[in-house]
Structures are given as C-alpha cells and as structure tokens.
C-alpha cells in the first residue's frame, strides 16, 4: 500500500495536484486492492454525466492506425487548449509490446512537451492483453481525470478495422483518424467502418495526398445515408504547421453542444455507464480468478473434481465478497 491513503491523494488530485493524479493513475492501472480503494475514494462516477456542461468533462476518443499522427495531433490540440486557458487530460493507450510488456515509449516522448503545459495532463497506459486494445483501467482513469476537473478528456487508442470502435463505448465523441500514405486513399472505406465516427480527421495535411484523402472522405460521407441529424465534420490537420487544430477543437465543441441540445447525450451516457459497470465486473472477476482460491477452483475443474458450472457459481460468490487489503 502507498504511504498516503487513497482518500488524501484523491483530495489533492481534486485540488489539481498533478503528482497526486499521477500516483492515483498508477494505483488504478496496477489494479487489485489498492485500485479498489482508490475507486472507492473517488467521487461518484462523473463519466456517465455531462458532456462538458455543468462542469462535467467532455470525453473524446481518438482512434486510427498505428503511426497516423494521433499523438502529434493531440500535442498540438493540448497546446491550443492550454493557450486558451482550457484544460485537457490525455490518456494514450499503447499496445503492449510482447517483448517489454510495458507501454511503448513513443507516445510518452511525443507528448512530453505538451505534458508540461499549464492545464494539461498526459498519461500512457499499456493495453495489456485486451483484444479490443483497451486497458482495463481506462474507465477508472477517465473517472480520475473527471474528478480532477479536466474539461476535456481525450483517449487515444491504436486500432485498425473494427477494434477502432472499442473506445466508442467509453466516450461522448468518437474521432477517427486517417493519414495519407501508401497511395491508398481512404482505408476506412475498405474496412467498412464509415459513418460511425462523429468527427473525421485527416492528419499530416502537409504531405502530398492528404487533400485527396479528405476529399474522398467528404464525398463518402455525403453519399452515405445518415440516420442522425449530426453531420460529421472532416478536418484536415497538420501537427507540423498547426493547420486545422483550431477547427478540430471547434468540431469537438460543436459535437458536445449537439449531444446536449439533441438529447443524444442520454444514449451516450447509458452506453458509457454500461461499459464502466462491465469493466469493473471484469476487473473483479480477474482478481478472483488470479487469487489462490481462484487458481484452485480452476485446477479442480481441470482435474474433473468440479464442473464448470459449479466453478462459475463459486467464483461468482467470491466476487460478491468484500475486497480484502493486499
Ligand atoms: N509530415 C508530418 N508528419 C507527422 C505529422 N504528425 C505526425 N507525423 C509523424 O508521423 C509519425 C507518427 O506520429 P505519431 O503522432 O506518433 O502517430 P500516432 O498515431 O500517435 O502513432 P501510434 O501511437 O504509434 O499509433 C511520427 O514520425 C511523426 O513525426 C504531421 O502533421 N506531418
Ligand atoms: Mg500515439
């Protein structure tokens, strides 16, 4: 256990102390009993509520293929927001390297400068083994940043194909990123995943091909049938020149306002709350499965002393028990 009780750290985090926020993030990411204590000390989950209104955070997910320029763009967005005296917490979920088992250094290095800006907090977490490329701690960390009072919380995930959307379950606004390159036009179309994002971004606008990609995207969005009355923006950006950064922030704000005015926010809140519940139950389940008793129950099922149904029943009963301290 840390020397400072979770409650005291949470109080300091809520007062804006970045060091305390970082320590709490570490405890949450580590999981286990200390994470449960932190969770219990956080104010009632802010995640499901608000989308910027009434002092609640606007939670944004940004996803796209590896190397598309997401982190570079978020650094520029952070700089822009900081200049405007606004606050932002960025959570970069890195695919875990099978070799090191830790978060890759790239994001941390690329966003180090941004992390020093007033009102900006940057954190990397490893995706661990989750198939959807998300860390089990994502909802907890979003709650933490919400408690710490950040106005925007942006979650960066790497994804291609369907798993680009996993983050949608945790956010109010989904941004999909496409970058020019490999002479390939719009990859999203090929993956059959258009019309799902709220905002589309074409990165590396300073490179040849970027304008073509954004034109193709716009054309596809115009052709596509839309059931909602939100027309997704396509924003061409360059982290190199800063082009489009202001437009992107404006598009995010516009989407937040539309969610509120259209009432769509209610659906998003329910979706986020369901995900938060699911991930907490999964975390508890993992904890029980990995305990001595959990392993024993698994072993007994392997040897045939027990069937899977009774094993599941026992595990479920253990999950309902209060969590002991580590
Ligand atoms: N020319 C140009 N290069 C860029 C731009 N933005 C990013 N890059 C380059 O693209 C590469 C990847 O950038 P990142 O920001 O790390 O991309 P990412 O999508 O966060 O990458 P992962 O998190 O590893 O998936 C780096 O070499 C950047 O320097 C841009 O606006 N213009
Ligand atoms: Mg990145």
Q: Calculate the mean pLDDT score and round it.
A: 83
Strand content: 5-15%
How many strands in all?
A: 7
CATH topology (fold) name of the largest domain: Rossmann fold
The coarse silhouette is: globular
CATH architecture of the largest domain: 3-Layer(aba) Sandwich
- Give unreliable regions as ranges: 97-103
CA radius of gyration is 21 Å
> With helices defined by DSSP (H or I, 4 residues minimum), what is the helix count?
13
Mind describing the biggest β-sheet? 7 strands, parallel
Q: Which structural class is indicated by helix and strand composition?
A: alpha/beta
| Secondary structure: helix percent | 40-55%
Superfamily at the CATH H level of the largest domain? P-loop containing nucleotide triphosphate hydrolases
The strand line-up of the biggest sheet is 3-2-4-1-5-6-7
Domain count, please report it: 3
Short description:
The chain is an alpha/beta fold and 326 residues long. The protein is built from 13 helices and seven strands.
Question: What attributes does this structure have?
Answer:
single chain; 326 residues; alpha/beta; Rossmann fold; 3 domains; seven-stranded parallel β-sheet; 7 strands; 46% helix; binds guanosine-5'-triphosphate; binds magnesium ion
């Amino acid at each position: 256990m840390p020397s400072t009780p979770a409650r005291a750290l949470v109080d300091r985090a809520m007062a804006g102390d970045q060091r305390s926020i970082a320590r709490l993030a570490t405890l949450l990411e580590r999981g286990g009993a200390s994470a449960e204590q932190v969770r219990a000390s956080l104010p009632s989950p802010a995640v499901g509520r608000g989308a910027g209104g009434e002092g609640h955070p606007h939670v944004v997910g940004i996803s796209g293929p590896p190397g598309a320029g997401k982190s570079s763009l978020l650094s520029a967005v952070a700089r822009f927001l900081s200049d405007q005296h606004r606050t932002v917490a960025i959570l970069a979920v890195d695919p875990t390297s099978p070799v090191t088992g830790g978060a890759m250094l790239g994001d941390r290095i690329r966003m180090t400068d941004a992390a020093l800006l007033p009102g900006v907090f940057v954190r990397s977490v490893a995706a661990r083994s989750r198939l959807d490329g998300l860390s089990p701690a994502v909802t907890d960390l979003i709650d933490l940043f919400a408690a710490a009072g950040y106005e925007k919380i942006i979650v960066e995930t790497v994804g291609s194909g369907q798993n680009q959307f996993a983050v949608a379950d945790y956010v109010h606004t989904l941004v999909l990123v496409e970058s020019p390159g490999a002479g390939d036009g719009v990859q999203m179309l090929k993956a059959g995943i258009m019309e799902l994002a709220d905002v589309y971004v074409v990165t590396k606008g300073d490179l040849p091909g970027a304008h073509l990609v954004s034109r193709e995207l716009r054309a596809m969005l115009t052709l596509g049938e839309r059931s909602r009355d939100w027309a997704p923006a396509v924003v061409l950006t360059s982290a190199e020149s800063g082009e489009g950064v202001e437009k992107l922030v404006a598009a995010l704000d516009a989407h937040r306002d539309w969610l509120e005015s259209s009432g769509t926010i209610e659906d998003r809140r329910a979706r986020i709350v369901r995900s938060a519940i699911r991930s907490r139950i999964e975390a508890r389940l993992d904890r029980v499965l990995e305990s001595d008793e959990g392993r024993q129950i698994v072993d007994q099922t392997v040897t045939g002393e027990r069937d899977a149904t009774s094993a599941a029943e026992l595990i479920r009963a253990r999950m309902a028990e209060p969590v002991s301290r580590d």
